[in-house]
Design goal:
Chain lengths: 345, 348
C-alpha cells in the first residue's frame, strides 16, 4: 500500500498527563492515557476504536484533532501523528495552536454528549456557521445561511430550524446538528467520539445510517470511537481494540468480531448482551473479573496480565510483542495460541 | 412548522420571566425612573434660578457662576436668587426670576430663617432643616442620586475587574492561576474598614477616591465565582468543539464561555448594590466618608443621631434608605428567581 492512499499515520503515540503535587508543585506521577499506539488509516475507511471507559480511546481522538493542550497545557505528547494534507504530510502532534489552524478544516470531531456539545446561547445557524466563519474569514452572511440550510437538510433536519436554540431539539436532533457542524468545512477526516452512545437505541440506528450515507456521499474517513461492539461492527472496516492506553488487537472488522484473538477482545465480545436467552445459557461466556488497573500505576509487562485468563509469569517481565496472526490482523500477545485459548474455556 | 424569526434566547426567556414577577419588575421601574429623574434635579430642587431676566437679558445661573452685582443685587459673591426674586418683585422694573419648584439647595445653610435650627417641617421646608439650617428634603433627594451612583459605579467597576481577572484565571489556569489566587487571598485579608479609616483620616476622600477605595477591596469576591464558571465551561464539549474548529482565544472567551458564565454576576449584582449603598452610609455615618457638606444619607443619619429629639432628622434618611434597599432587594429576588439555573438550564 502506498502512502498516497493513506490519510493518517499514527506512530508510537504517547499522551501522558502529569500530576503535580507537593509544595513546589513538582510532577509526582503521570497518567499514561495513551501509551504507545500506532496505526494507519486509509482514505475512505472507517476505523472502529473500542475499549472500556478510561482506556484512552477518547484521548486518541482528541489528540488527533489536537485539542488536548488547550484543556491541560502541560500534557506530554510524543510520537507522530502524520496527516496527509493538501500540502503533503504534516505531523499534527507537535503543532502549536496557530500552526494547526490551516488543517482544522480537514479534521473535525463529533462529540459524545449532544447536550453539552452545542453552545446553549447560540442559534443553530450560528453553531453550524461558526466553522465556516472561522475557516473563511470574510465569508458573506448569505453564503453561510445557504450552506447552513443545505447542511441541515443533508442531516435530515429542515432549514427552517436554523433559527432555533439547541434546547428546542431532542437528543437525536442535536446530534444531527453536531454532525452538520462537523461537515460544514468539507472535512476529510471525522473523529466520531461515541456519537450514538448517549442516544436511544431507535435513534442510534438512524444516526448510524446517516453517518454511513454521509460517508458515501462526501467520501469521508471516520475514526469511530465506541464501547458498544455491535455498533462498531456495523460501521467499521477495521477495528482496533484498546486496553489501558495500548492497542491489543487490530484487524478487519469481520476477523476481530468473528474470531477475536487477544484474550481481552474475547472477553469484550463475550460481554455483549445476547438477545436470545437460550443462547445465553448454552454459550460459554467468560467475563472479566476485577477492575481496570489505575493508569497512574500500570502493571509491569503486559498491562492486561492482572485480569488475563491465560497470564503466565513471564507476562510481568516484558511488554508483549505484536504478532501478526492473520492477514492484516495484529495482536499484542505472544501466547495467543488458539488451542491454548480453547483449552482454558 | 415554518419559523421566520429566531426563537427567544435564554436571556430573553429569563427576562420575560422576570417581567412576569411584578414585584421585582415594578421595583426596577421605580428605581430606574427615579434615578433617571435625579439627574434632572437641578431643574426641580435647587437654590439657583432656572432663568433670570435682568434688563432685557436672559441669564441661566444653573450653567455657571454669576456674581450678585451683575444682577443688581447688593451682595458679595454669588447672587441669592430667592432674595433676588423678592427684590425684582418689589422694584417692579420688568425684571424677573424663574425659580425651580423647590427653591432650596442641598448644601446651602438657610441663615435667613427665623429661630434656631433645626427647624421642624413646614409648608416651605417639607422635612424641615438640619442643625446647620440646610433643607432636609433637598439633601435627601440629592443623597439618593449620590447613593445610587456610588453603588452602581463601585459594583460595575468591581465586577468588570473581578470578571476579567477571574475569567483569565479560569481560562489560562496553571501557574498564573495559582500565583494570582494567592495574591487575592493576601489582598483579601487586609482589613477593609481599618484601611479606609486610616486613609480617610489622613486625607479627606472625594467621591471618586472613596469609590476607588471600595473597588480596590470589592473586586475579589467575583473572581472566585467566575474562575469556577470558566473552569467548568472550558471543559464542556462545546468549547472543545470551538477550539477544534480553530477558534481564537478571544472568540472562545467572549462568544462561548462568557455568555454562559454570567449568571452569578447578574444574580449577585442587586445584592452587591445593597451592600455598597450600605457601605457608603456606614462610612459617612462614622465620618470616614464623603466631605460633610456633601448630601449623603450616612451623614444625615449622623446629624440625626446628634439631634435625636428632632425626629425628622432621623426618620427621613432612615426611611429613604429602607425603601431604597427594599426595592433593590425586591429586584434581586426577582432576578434570582428568573435566573434560577433549574429553569431553562444552561444545557438542556
Amino acid at each position: 500500500m502506498s502512502d498516497k492512499d493513506l490519510l493518517l499515520k499514527v506512530e508510537d503515540l504517547h499522551v501522558h498527563f502529569p500530576i503535580h503535587g507537593g509544595l513546589m508543585l513538582r510532577k509526582v506521577a503521570e497518567v499514561r492515557a495513551v501509551d504507545g499506539i500506532s496505526f494507519e488509516l486509509k482514505k475512505g475507511e472507517t476505523l472502529g476504536l473500542v475499549g472500556e471507559s478510561g482506556c484512552g480511546k477518547t484521548t486518541v481522538g482528541r489528540a488527533i484533532v489536537n485539542v488536548l493542550r488547550s484543556g491541560s497545557p502541560d500534557v506530554e505528547i510524543s510520537g507522530k501523528l502524520l496527516f496527509n494534507s493538501d500540502k503533503g504530510w504534516v505531523d499534527l502532534a507537535h503543532l502549536k495552536r496557530r500552526e494547526m489552524r490551516p488543517y482544522r478544516k480537514d479534521i473535525q470531531m463529533i462529540f459524545q454528549d449532544p447536550f453539552s456539545s452545542l453552545n446553549p446561547r447560540m442559534l443553530v445557524k450560528d453553531i453550524i456557521g461558526e466553522p465556516l466563519e472561522i475557516t473563511n474569514p470574510g465569508i458573506k452572511a448569505a453564503e453561510v445561511t445557504e450552506r447552513v440550510h443545505w447542511l441541515l437538510e443533508k442531516v435530515g433536519l429542515s432549514g427552517e430550524q436554523a433559527l432555533r436554540y439547541p434546547h428546542e431539539f431532542s437528543g437525536g436532533q442535536r446530534q444531527r446538528i453536531g454532525i452538520a457542524r462537523s461537515l460544514a468545512t468539507n472535512p476529510k477526516l471525522i473523529v466520531a467520539d461515541e456519537p450514538v452512545s448517549a442516544l436511544d437505541v431507535s435513534i442510534q440506528a438512524q444516526v448510524i445510517n446517516l453517518l454511513q450515507d454521509l460517508q458515501e456521499e462526501f467520501d469521508l474517513t471516520f475514526i469511530f470511537i465506541a464501547h458498544d461492539l455491535s455498533v462498531v461492527e456495523h460501521l467499521s472496516d477495521r477495528i482496533a481494540v484498546m486496553y489501558l492506553g495500548s492497542m491489543v488487537e487490530l484487524g478487519e472488522a469481520q476477523q476481530v468480531y468473528r474470531k477475536p484473538t487477544h484474550p481481552y477482545s474475547r472477553a469484550l465480545l463475550d460481554a455483549v448482551p445476547l438477545p436470545d436467552p437460550t443462547r445465553v445459557k448454552t454459550k460459554d461466556r467468560r467475563l472479566l473479573e476485577g477492575d481496570v488497573p489505575n493508569p497512574i500505576n500500570k502493571p509491569s509487562g503486559c498491562s492486561f496480565r492482572t485480569r488475563c485468563p491465560i497470564a503466565k509469569p513471564e507476562c510481568a517481565q516484558n511488554v508483549p510483542p505484536v504478532v501478526e496472526v492473520g492477514p492484516n490482523h495484529f495482536v499484542a500477545c505472544p501466547h495467543v495460541d488458539v488451542d491454548l485459548l480453547d483449552q482454558t474455556k | 412548522m415554518a419559523q421566520k424569526t429566531a426563537s427567544p434566547s435564554i436571556f430573553a426567556k429569563r427576562w420575560r420571566k422576570f417581567k412576569s414577577m411584578k414585584r421585582g419588575y415594578v421595583s426596577l421601574q421605580i428605581l430606574l425612573i427615579t434615578y433617571g429623574l435625579s439627574f434632572l434635579l437641578p431643574f426641580f430642587v435647587s437654590n439657583k434660578a432656572l432663568i433670570v431676566s435682568y434688563e432685557g437679558e436672559w441669564h441661566f445661573p444653573m450653567f455657571g457662576y454669576i456674581s450678585a452685582s451683575d444682577l443688581g443685587q447688593e451682595r458679595i459673591g454669588e447672587a441669592n436668587y430667592r432674595e433676588l426674586k423678592e427684590l425684582y418683585k418689589a422694584r417692579d422694573e420688568g425684571n424677573w426670576v424663574l425659580m425651580p419648584l423647590y427653591p432650596y439647595g442641598p448644601k446651602e445653610s438657610l441663615l435667613e430663617m427665623d429661630g434656631t435650627p433645626p427647624h421642624p417641617p413646614s409648608s416651605s421646608h417639607w422635612i424641615g432643616t438640619d442643625d446647620r439650617a440646610r433643607d432636609v428634603f433637598a439633601r435627601l433627594v440629592y443623597g439618593y442620586k449620590v447613593s445610587i451612583s456610588f453603588a452602581l459605579i463601585v459594583t460595575i467597576i468591581a465586577y468588570i475587574i473581578g470578571v476579567s481577572i477571574g475569567g483569565m484565571l479560569g481560562y489560562f489556569g496553571g501557574l498564573f492561576d495559582i500565583t494570582v489566587q494567592r495574591f487575592i487571598e493576601i489582598w483579601g485579608s487586609i482589613p477593609f474598614l481599618f484601611t479606609i479609616m486610616i486613609l480617610s483620616s489622613l486625607i479627606q476622600p472625594s467621591f471618586f477616591m472613596l469609590a476607588g477605595l471600595l473597588i480596590a477591596f470589592a473586586w475579589m469576591g467575583m473572581t472566585y465565582y467566575i474562575r469556577g464558571e470558566f473552569y467548568r465551561e472550558k471543559s464542556r464539549d462545546y468549547v472543545q468543539a470551538a477550539i477544534s474548529m480553530g477558534a481564537s482565544d478571544r472568540r472562545v472567551i467572549f462568544k462561548h464561555i462568557l455568555p454562559n458564565s454570567l449568571t452569578p454576576v447578574i444574580s449577585f449584582m442587586p445584592f452587591a448594590i445593597v451592600g455598597n449603598i450600605s457601605a457608603l452610609v456606614s462610612l459617612d455615618f462614622l465620618g470616614f466618608g464623603l466631605p460633610p457638606e456633601e448630601p449623603s444619607w450616612g451623614s444625615m443619619v449622623k446629624v440625626g443621631m446628634a439631634n435625636i429629639t428632632d425626629w425628622w432628622l432621623v426618620l427621613a434618611p432612615l426611611a429613604a434608605l429602607f425603601v431604597t434597599l427594599l426595592l433593590v432587594v425586591f429586584i434581586g429576588e426577582g432576578i434570582r428567581e428568573a435566573f434560577d439555573p433549574k429553569v431553562y438550564s444552561r444545557l438542556r
